[in-house]
């Protein structure tokens, strides 16, 4: 991602087709709603929330609203001490990793991703070298053009150095959603290891609701993390966690000794969005339908454009903002594709960075080097033009016509 930003920034005047972007789509109705809600919070509470320090747990108005929301929507038996608000869900995941993994008096523990590929940003959460590992999935072929990752729960349950388990659901990049049954198996694994399971719902239920996904699970071992980034406010960096006090209280203390608290004006905005049902309405009537239609569009483009004589497959995604493509050919390499496409003005994200320790893969072989991620959030014309270049480039790589990267 740094290379994409640097390249685009240095090549003034050049037109780029950026299909590697991680921003949510620019949806006018979403922007208008958040602008209206933020204007209301600014007028009603600016002096109280922006001109004073606040609680490290979160703005009391928002904390109470979150409690009422999850009690009412899912029937969770929670109170304010089960909630902490932070400056983005990724920061909350980092805090959890810092608190619950690393060197210990009796043993050293690691942050474990129960299934890779998963969000590449997780791999920077550990402060200890070698402090993160991922469990490779089983790969199941589904027809000529589809495949799916399955949890290797036996390997996960057999690990001996687990301090924290963390996964995104739906996942970035593959869009795979853990079913309720799978979540229960992961909870059982967390219980067996005597560790917390952090579930990052950044793309899932109840918001932003990008694709059908299982409702979040309440359990004393689970810390559910939620974000408003993909619901339209990525720049405001606001997220919150709901979990058992034994995990939430240390996170509150960490917040108190680091950032003090998350920005409060946007907390006030979110509180009103939840109380008024404005966010739920936005998800149900705008965000969810938008991404459902966009996925159909992009997957149809790929099916029509990518060469039929190449063994490419698309992950069977239930949600998220991306398409995850596997080119099951010996000649294919994700970095070569990346560099070749960059030379042709197109960006995608190479797949290997979503896996951990690919040099010592036990069962996936070259698979982590044969995948790439395409974002569904650029405008349709950009996506269509980019897919056309990707298709032509794959054809050239197949017959050796593409120049190797310098």
TrEMBL record:
Keywords: Aminotransferase, Pyridoxal phosphate, Transferase. SUPFAM superfamilies: PLP-dependent transferases (SSF53383). Pfam families: Aminotran_1_2. Residues 15-390 form the Aminotransferase class I/classII large domain. CDD domains: AAT_like (cd00609). InterPro entries: Aminotransferase_I/II_large (IPR004839), Class-I_PLP-dep_aminotransf (IPR050859), PyrdxlP-dep_Trfase (IPR015424), PyrdxlP-dep_Trfase_major (IPR015421). Its cofactor is pyridoxal 5'-phosphate. GO terms for molecular function: transaminase activity. PANTHER family: AMINOTRANSFERASE (PTHR42790), VALINE--PYRUVATE AMINOTRANSFERASE (PTHR42790:SF4). This is Aminotransferase class I/II-fold pyridoxal phosphate-dependent enzyme.
């Amino acid at each position: 991602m740094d290379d994409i930003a640097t390249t685009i920034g240095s090549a003034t005047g050049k037109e780029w087709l950026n299909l590697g972007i991680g921003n949510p789509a620019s949806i006018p109705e979403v922007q208008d709603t958040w602008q209206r809600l933020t204007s209301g919070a600014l007028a009603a509470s600016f002096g109280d929330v922006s001109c004073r320090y606040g609680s490290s747990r979160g703005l009391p108005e928002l904390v109470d609203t979150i409690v009422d929301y999850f009690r009412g929507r899912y029937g969770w038996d929670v109170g304010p001490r089960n909630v902490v608000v932070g400056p983005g869900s990724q920061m909350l995941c980092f805090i959890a990793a810092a608190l619950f993994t690393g060197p210990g008096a009796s043993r050293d523990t690691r942050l474990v991703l129960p299934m890779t590929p998963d969000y590449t940003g997780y791999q920077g959460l550990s402060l200890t070298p070698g402090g993160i590992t991922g469990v490779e999935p089983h790969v199941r072929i589904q027809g000529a053009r589809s495949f799916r990752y399955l949890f290797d729960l036996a390997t996960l349950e057999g690990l001996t150095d687990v301090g924290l388990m963390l996964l995104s659901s739906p996942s970035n990049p593959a869009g795979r959603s853990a079913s309720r049954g799978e979540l229960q198996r992961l909870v059982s694994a967390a219980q067996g290891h005597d560790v917390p399971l952090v579930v990052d719902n950044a793309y899932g239920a109840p918001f932003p609701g990008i694709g059908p996904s299982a409702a979040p699970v309440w359990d004393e071992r689970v810390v559910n993390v939620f974000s408003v980034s993909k619901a339209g406010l990525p720049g405001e960096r606001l997220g919150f966690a709901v979990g058992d006090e034994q995990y939430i209280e240390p996170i509150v203390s960490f917040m108190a000794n680091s950032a003090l608290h998350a920005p409060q004006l946007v907390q006030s905005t979110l509180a009103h969005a939840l109380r008024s049902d404005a966010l739920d309405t936005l998800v149900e009537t705008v965000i969810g339908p938008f991404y459902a239609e966009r996925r159909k569009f992009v997957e149809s483009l790929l099916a029509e454009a990518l060469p039929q004589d190449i063994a490419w497959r698309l992950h069977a995604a239930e949600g998220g903002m991306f398409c995850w493509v596997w080119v099951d050919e010996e000649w294919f390499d994700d970095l070569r594709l990346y560099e070749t496409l960059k030379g042709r003005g197109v960006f995608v994200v190479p797949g290997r960075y979503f896996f951990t320790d690919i040099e010592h893969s036990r069962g996936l072989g070259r698979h982590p080097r044969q995948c790439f991620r395409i974002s569904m959030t650029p405008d349709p014309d950009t996506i269509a033009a980019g897919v056309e270049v990707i298709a032509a480039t794959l054809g050239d790589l197949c017959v050796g016509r593409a120049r190797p990267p310098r």
